[in-house]
Amino acid sequence: MSDKYCGEFKGFNPDELIGDTYEPIITRNIEVGSNAEVKRGELLAASTPTGVYQTATAADTAKFLVVARDNFTADSDCKITTAYTSGVFNRERLVTGSTGTTVVDALEFSLRQQNIFLTGLREV
User: Fold this and answer.
1) Could you give the CA distance from residue 106 to residue 47 in angstroms, rounded to a whole number?
2) How does the average pLDDT of the chain come out, rounded?
3) How far is CA 36 from CA 6, 62, 74, 101, in A?
4) Where are the alpha helices (DSSP H) in the chain?
5) Cβ–Cβ contacts within 10 Å for residue 9, how many?
6) Which of 17, 57, 69, 98 supports an S-S bond with 93, CB 3.0-4.6 Å?
7) CB neighbours of 67 closer than 8 A, spacing ≥ 6?
8) Across 49-111, where does the E strand assignment appear?
9) 104 - beta bridge partners?
10) Which of 48, 52, 56, 65 is nearest to 103 (CA)?
11) Is the pLDDT of residue 12 over 60?
């Protein structure tokens, strides 16, 4: 994995991705594939044994992460972004390669086993 990290977090954006804080929110830097475009809340799965991540599908069984940075595009010089490895997230704010929540619903049990818990948005 490359040790070059590009970008930084700026400000606070109340986008409702974080669903609660009763479970510790932990982040780590990860490598995504070349020319990959990922956005905050995107659900990723390890695509290789070396730990390169790609958008999760309903058939994935690997390690899952949720992208923490907003709108990151990898290139040949920088493939490192930040992702959440654990926490509670609103299922409606998770992003997958398909529309709807079918991928998220199919993976909920596997996510829970990896300390990624799902909740739903609450109308007030």
Assistant:
1) 18
2) 83
3) 14, 19, 5, 22
4) 102-113
5) 11
6) 17
7) 38, 39, 40, 41, 42, 44, 81, 82, 83, 84, 95
8) 52-55, 64-67, 72-73, 80-90
9) none
10) 56
11) no
Determine the Cα–Cα distance for residues 33 and 9; give it in Å rounded to an integer: 21
Q: Which of 58, 70, 61 is nearest to 105 (CA)?
A: 58
Q: For the whole model, what pTM was predicted?
A: 0.83
Of the chain, the end-to-end C-alpha distance in Å amounts to: 44
From 62, 70, 76, 84, select the one nearest 32 (Cα to Cα). Answer: 76
State whether residue 86 is helix, strand or coil.
strand
Structure tokens at 87: 């926490």
Cα distances (angstroms) measured from residue 82 to each of 26, 32, 86, 95, 102:
10, 10, 12, 15, 25
Instruction: Please give the distance of CA 87 from its chain centroid, rounded to a whole number.
Output: 11
- CA-wise closest residue to 88 among 30, 10, 16, 11: 16
pLDDT digit string, tens, across residues 56-83:
888 888 889 999 988 888 887 788 889 9
Q: Which residue has the tokens 């929540």?
A: 101
